[in-house]
Amino acid sequence: MKIMQINLVGYKEWTESLGYDREWKIQNFQHGFLSRLNEIAAEINSFIITYRYDSYIMLLDGVLIGKNDYILTKIKELSPVPIDICFGYGKTLLDAERNCSINIDNILLAKDEKVLVAHFDLDGFSRKKLLFDAYLEVYKIYNKLFHYAIELGGLAYYFGGDNIGIFLGVENINKIIELANSFPSMKVGIGIGNNPREALKNAAEALHTIRIYRNRKIEIVDSKN
Ligand SMILES: Nc1nc2c(ncn2[C@@H]2O[C@H](COP(=O)(O)OP(=O)(O)OP(=O)(O)O)[C@@H](O)[C@H]2O)c(=O)[nH]1
């Protein structure tokens, strides 16, 4: 699996330079920066994951990042601080992060893997009345999925609402199906694609199919080619 990691150098110092009336400025930057990174990632059929906002992972399997520094120049222009970039390759996404190095050949010479994303969607979420009840339920499930993803070397990501994704290599398909079956009141759309954007599109299509037929909780859509 392949990734590019974008690290904001001196982000801590930048946030503290904003004075005490800063939280709104930090939130403004973080959501704006992530929004622009998402657009850049979508342009190259990738997807961005972040847990900390001072470091971002761009999933690169099946993505033509090439040696051109157009992407890197665009990202650098968006950041208030210098950025460090590393490229990682490994059997799993976690291995790829552990092997991250500045040498882009690390990924250019490596084989692209197909991307699997399991999109977990709780049943009846929008009918829950209290925001806190709804989020507490989602948070507990996210916590469980996050730990399980790490055991498989994958990355879990909260998409919003009652939607949680786990990104993995396709060899984990049976384990993901077993995991999906362990959750009552859950739909799981599994998308397999030649790049992260295609895998996510397939997962959304799989969830739509589940909603139409309503008699099953797991569906797989795979871009065979
Ligand atoms: N990030 C993300 N949010 C979504 C997606 N689909 C729906 N949502 C949001 O998730 C929340 C819940 O939507 P649904 O899951 O369709 O509502 P629900 O009540 O759970 O309905 P069922 O899933 O059909 O049981 C809403 O805020 C939607 O806007 C998606 O593909 N990605």
TrEMBL record:
Class of the enzyme per the UniProt entry, highest EC level: hydrolase
EC numbers for this chain: 3.5.4.29
GO terms, molecular function: GTP binding; GTP cyclohydrolase IIa activity
Catalytic activity: GTP + 3 H2O = 2-amino-5-formylamino-6-(5-phospho-D-ribosylamino)pyrimidin-4(3H)-one + 2 phosphate + 2 H(+)
Residue stretches spanning the membrane: none
Domain of life: Archaea
A Pfam family it matches: GCH_III
Keywords annotated in UniProt: GTP-binding, Hydrolase, Nucleotide-binding
Keyword Metal-binding attached: no
UniProt key word Hydrolase: yes
Function: Catalyzes the formation of 2-amino-5-formylamino-6-ribofuranosylamino-4(3H)-pyrimidinone ribonucleotide monophosphate and inorganic phosphate from GTP. Also has an independent pyrophosphate phosphohydrolase activity.
Family: Belongs to the archaeal-type GTP cyclohydrolase family.
Protein name: GTP cyclohydrolase III
Name of the coding gene: gch3
